[in-house]
Amino acid sequence: MAVLTEEIRNRIRAEFPKYPNRRAVTLPALHIVHEAQRAVSPEAMKEIAELLELHPAEVADTMSFYGFFRTPDRPLGTKRVWVCRSLSCMLRGGEELLADLTKRLNSNVGGTTADGNVTLEFAECLGACEQAPCILVNDECHGNQTQDSVLKLIENK
Amino acid sequence: MPRFEPVLLKRIDKPNSAALAGYRADGGYTALKKALAMAPDDVTNLVKDSGLRGRGGAGFSAGAKWSFLPKNHPGPIYLCVNADESEPGTFNNRILMEQDPHQLLEGIAIACHAIRSNAAYIYLRYEYGRSYRVLDAAIKECYAAGLLGENILGTGFKLDVRLHRGAGAYICGEETGLIESLEGKRAWPRIKPPYPAIEGLFRKPTIVNNVETLCCVTHILTRGVEWFKSMGVPPDPNNKRDQGSYGPKLYCISGHVNKPCCVELPLGVMARELIDVHGGGVWKGRKAKAVVPGGISMGFLSANELDTKLDFEGPGKVGCLGLGTAAVVVIDDQTSMVDVLYNCCRFMSHESCGQCTPCREGTAWMTKILERIRTGRGKLEDIDLLYEVANSMGIIPGTTICGLADGAAWPVKNAVTKFRGEFEEYIRSGRSSITPAQQLMAAH
Ligand SMILES: Cc1cc2nc3c(=O)[nH]c(=O)nc-3n(C[C@H](O)[C@H](O)[C@H](O)COP(=O)(O)O)c2cc1C
Ligand code: SF4
Ligand code: FES
């Protein structure tokens, strides 16, 4: 059984006309699959490779370079929460925010809560340093966070 | 001094500043119309004459870069818009994209006309989800209004603009790392030459420009070269290599100030003015101990160097790497430089792509040495060791493929030179100031 649904395949195919070759669709395809399946499995890599007319190893090589993508042994939870640890945020409590969240969510950095709801990670500079400390929930940034505001934010997202 | 009227940020507080209708009502896309009535080389020459230098970090003349493209090339020629903005402390591209996407899209269209390109890719860091959605909507508006696609403004000019999302790697901001990543590979920077203008994306001639650079282009077309050159700092007549620092610049101010913000000013403002006037002063009534002048890669200004002009030449005069992204990060006098430097080194070690041994190993070792110092196990020799490692990595000593390594070395060199006493005192004391939160992060 194919692991990529027809809907996912069509979304990947829709990227083809934007580039002069299919290899350039590697990142868009990985994003589409990763977002839907919360990880990219070896089977999915193989099917992406078929669509892009590549060798599976080429897809795996590219994917492994970007720490962003998860493999099925550690899939993403429903929400992905990143806490910035780079300089401007560190100077205004970013590391403390992250340490506190590990306790309150009972999850380590990189881990996912037992109910599968939240994956907690550190991020490098999120490009919103004027609002330090910042967090990213999925791909939306939220600035000026405190230990309490961050929990509320995660619950409501 | 009269208050400077922002140009690049002029529209950002308007309601619906991202919508095409408002942009056009404010005179938007007339610069493109003007450019399309000119020969491509004339547009390139205009940009060259304006003295516009790249805002992405290297400060290379935009017009000169465009003129390096091969003549009479059959095409395709590509424009890559560098929207990977990931240098710690930097966030001006994000504001430009979220608040005024058409200003950027107009700059892209003008640049593409000048370089004879029909295809532009905006390489956008994944974390900028809001920018992605705003730009995506703005691009759709342009296609619907005949400002992108075939026969733009009835002139026969054709252009497609595509958004391409990154996947959380700083090295994708280096122009050839960006190109490799766009091609679907690991973002390993290429050995240069050939430069992208000769052989870039999909092995075709390619121009890579920063978001802010392209936004400036729009205004150079409408307001002209004289206007652009009326701002900033002319070249130092005693320095033949100084090309001057002209035009408006977006300065980012963050860290220990009362009012972190992004402010637009003519190039060449003093660090002190940014902190005291625009950033509302150092927080909690404290003093600045150190200031990052242009993203962490550029190193540090000490408290005695705050009257440094932040133009393309200023930071270099006090031993920093350069102006970089003009992102100022203020560090107060209660903060340990050991912690600050550790943070910078950890970032670079995490983001090194690993191709070059001096960078891969050097960034890892500098981080380990600082970890040792921070946990009270440092030795005085570690200070010279740090300097030695830093001094042997980068394009400047000629040991690496890209400039990440120089950006990793510079904060180390500056810190152990300008704050040596603090490092010595810390090591001699044998203390470990590491907090539980820092301990946790040190594991990653
Ligand atoms: C490690 C590294 C990271 C970089 N990151 C960025 C970036 O995020 N955005 C950017 O515009 N330029 C970045 N640059 C500079 C680019 O290589 C390139 O010089 C720039 O995009 C050219 O555009 P400009 O001439 O308009 O400034 C980076 C350079 C290095 C060495
Ligand atoms: S200098 Fe560092 S980041 Fe740049 S190519 Fe070499 S290893 Fe990669
Ligand atoms: S350092 Fe956290 S957003 Fe820039």
Key traits:
heterodimer; A: 157 residues; alpha+beta; Arc Repressor Mutant, subunit A; Glutaredoxin; 2 domains; 7 helices; B: 444 residues; alpha/beta; Rossmann fold; Ubiquitin-like (UB roll); de novo design (two linked rop proteins); 3 domains; 5-stranded mixed sheet; 17 helices; 41% helix; 14% strand; globular; binds flavin mononucleotide; binds iron/sulfur cluster; binds FE2/S2 (inorganic) cluster
Q: Which percent band covers the strand fraction of chain B?
A: 5-15%
- Main sheet overview of chain B: 5 strands, mixed
Mean pLDDT of chain B: 97
Overall SS class of chain A: alpha+beta
Q: What is the number of helical segments of chain A per DSSP (H or I, 4+ residues)?
A: 7
Backbone shape of chain A: elongated
Termini separation of chain B comes to 49 Å
